[in-house]
Design a protein that fits this description.
single chain; about 325 residues; alpha+beta; six-stranded antiparallel β-sheet; three-stranded mixed β-sheet; about 40% helix; binds zinc ion
């Protein structure tokens, strides 16, 4: 089996931007779009982006197959968003709309029908297209330079994460993924309070880990692992005392595999507030802490300051 090397359309986009990769190309396309819209600070106004792309939005009560659907009719794009998806998690709806903007951006750049249809001519091409549109959504809502500066300033303590969500108006999930990119040399685990079967104890278990690397250079745990693989026991401690913890001598152990480095445990604080935003007004209610994030990195490439932030005197 040969490795999938990308569709003709994505290759054309990468050439247009003289980018080293398709990812870099889509990021460059997003940066250019935001410049053209005159957007210089967060939260990114999707209204401005949509109007620049000549795209209408329509909030519908009709059942949709996904949170949003993109329609094209005689060159006119419309994004239909489900009302339920919007009111349930409006920041996630912003990501969904920004993802559709990624699709439209590609159409605008490629123009040519053959290139456009190559984008999802095979299952692999389609998967790559969706991945790139997620990258576009992340880059549109959290432009790299703006996110980098905000993370440096606020850090990723619970208060920092709360501040970052206010600044960028994104979902928890989108923010954590963005933050990991903005913190060089780091990767992260997500631990969620759950039981996998009715017979299992409900406790914090890994739902997301850094990608497995056979050399053991990166820490890794399989999904479902409990917090006892981490020592000192900072996951339990952070949950119990509801505080962030920085640990310079962290060990993550699985059988004979051991990783040592720096770790930072954090979470989103419990908040309840009302939001007014261009898509409407929304409320977010208090939620118990059900997800814990463990950021990890080698000691020589990470620092306390990068996690705690300048504004908090780290
Ligand atoms: Zn898509």
């Amino acid at each position: 089996m040969t490795k999938f090397s990308g569709s003709k359309g994505i290759a054309a986009l990468t050439r247009t931007f003289r980018a080293p990769s398709s990812e870099a190309a889509i990021r460059a396309a997003c940066a250019r779009l935001l410049r053209q819209c005159g957007i210089e600070r967060p939260p990114i106004s999707l209204k401005k982006v949509l109007s620049h792309l000549g795209t209408a939005t329509e909030i519908t009560d009709d059942p949709l197959n996904s949170d949003a659907v993109l329609h094209a009719e005689r060159g006119q794009f419309t994004i239909r968003i489900g009302r339920r998806a919007l009111t349930r998690n409006w920041q996630r709806a912003r990501f969904t709309i920004a993802h559709e903007c990624g699709h439209i951006l590609l159409y605008h750049h490629l123009k040519n029908t053959e290139l456009i249809s190559s984008l999802d001519s095979t299952a692999e091409a389609h998967a790559e297209l969706e991945r790139l549109c997620d990258i576009a959504a992340s880059e549109l809502l959290m432009p790299h330079g703006m996110l980098r500066a905000a993370v440096q300033n606020h850090g990723i303590t619970p208060n920092g994460l709360h501040a970052l969500r206010e600044i960028f108006a994104v979902s928890r999930k989108a923010l954590i993924q963005g933050v990991a990119r903005a913190l060089p040399g780091t990767d992260f685990f997500i631990w969620r309070l759950h039981a996998r079967t009715a017979f299992e104890e409900s406790t914090f278990r890994v739902v997301r880990a850094p990608r497995y690397h056979p050399s053991g250079a990166r820490p890794w745990l399989p999904a479902g692992s409990t917090a006892r693989h981490v020592s000192p026991r900072i996951i339990e401690e952070a949950v119990r005392d509801q505080k962030y913890i920085l640990e310079d001598n962290l060990e993550i152990a699985l059988n004979r595999r051991r990783w040592h480095g720096r770790g930072f445990v954090t979470f989103f604080p419990k908040v309840s507030r009302d939001y007014q935003y261009e898509l409407g007004s929304f409320e977010e209610s208090v939620r118990d802490i059900d997800s814990i994030y463990l950021f990890v990195g080698a000691r020589n490439v990470t620092s306390a300051r990068q996690f705690i932030g300048i504004a908090h005197g780290g």
